[in-house]
Amino acid sequence: MTMSSSRQIQSLSTISTEKPPFQFPPTYSFPPFFTPQPNTSTRHSQLEKWSALIQSWCRYYRIFKLSLVDAVETPLFHNAALKKRVSLSEARAIVDWMARADEDGGGGKRAEWVEGLAGKEKTLAWIWWRRPEEWAALIAGWVEETGQKNTVLTLYELMEGDGTRSQEFHGLDPDIMLRSLNVLVKQGKAQVFGNEGQEGVKFF
């Protein structure tokens, strides 16, 4: 989708100047937090805390697609005060865990590796601080509350229009918006039509 290019990967080099710094949890100041723990139960707890931190950090800065190569150089994975950092391989292991389902001993599918990077190591991932089905529920709720059923809206209106400015899905990555709308399509609550980059949606 043509609109997605500007939003695919938010610049991690400028996020700290856009709003007050993110407030890290107490565990971030605990040196062992940055080292893979050998004990199974401790490791599971560590991964849970990292998952929660990554989701909160990305949500705060409105980051949907995270480049680990860039992220390991940011405060997310590098605590300068402690002189501790997470390596790229460890960051990849954390996101791998986040991408697995709970029943597979994972983190509830709160991440997903970006496809289309054949031949490359895993370095780019969607971070699902809201999964597509959760975004879909928010959009459907807004449609219901504002009487938008049987109304045709463009994706641009949903993502950038004044009518959605107060909604959390305002400014949503176009690829995530389409995936979320497809959830509603499968539920019989919407129809998406039009050419790529000019899609419209009708809600039922």
Could you explain how this protein is built, in words?
The protein has 204 residues and is of the alpha+beta class. It has 2 domains: 26-127, Arc Repressor Mutant, subunit A; 132-203, Arc Repressor Mutant, subunit A. Helix content is 36%, strand content 12%. It is built from 7 helices and 8 strands, in the order ααβαββαββαβααββ. A hairpin with a 4-residue loop joins strand 2 (78-79) and strand 3 (84-85). The chain is elongated and about 55 Å long. Keywords: Cytoplasm, Protein transport, Transport. InterPro entries: ESCRT-II_cplx_Vps25-sub, ESCRT-II_cplx_Vps25-sub_N, WH-like_DNA-bd_sf, WH_DNA-bd_sf. Pfam families: ESCRT-II (PF05871). It comes from Byssochlamys spectabilis.
Key features of this structure:
7 helices, 204 residues, three-stranded antiparallel sheet, alpha+beta
Described by the principal axes of the CA atoms, the overall outline is: elongated
- Number of self-contained structural domains: 2
The major β-sheet equals: 3 strands, antiparallel
Extended strand count = 8
Q: Helix tally?
A: 7
CATH class category of the largest domain: Mainly Alpha
- Work out the strand percent: 5-15%
Low-confidence stretches: 1-9
Classify the secondary structure makeup into a structural class: alpha+beta
Q: What does the average pLDDT come to? A: 88
CATH superfamily of the largest domain: "Winged helix" DNA-binding domain. Chain C. Domain 1
| Helix residue percentage | 25-40%
Side-by-side strand order of the widest sheet: 1-5-4
By CATH, the topology of the largest domain is Arc Repressor Mutant, subunit A
Taking the alpha carbons of the first and last residues, their distance comes to 24 Å
Round the Cα radius of gyration to an integer and report it.
Answer: 18 Å
Order of helices and strands, N to C? HHEHEEHEEHEHHEE
The name of the CATH architecture of the largest domain is: Orthogonal Bundle
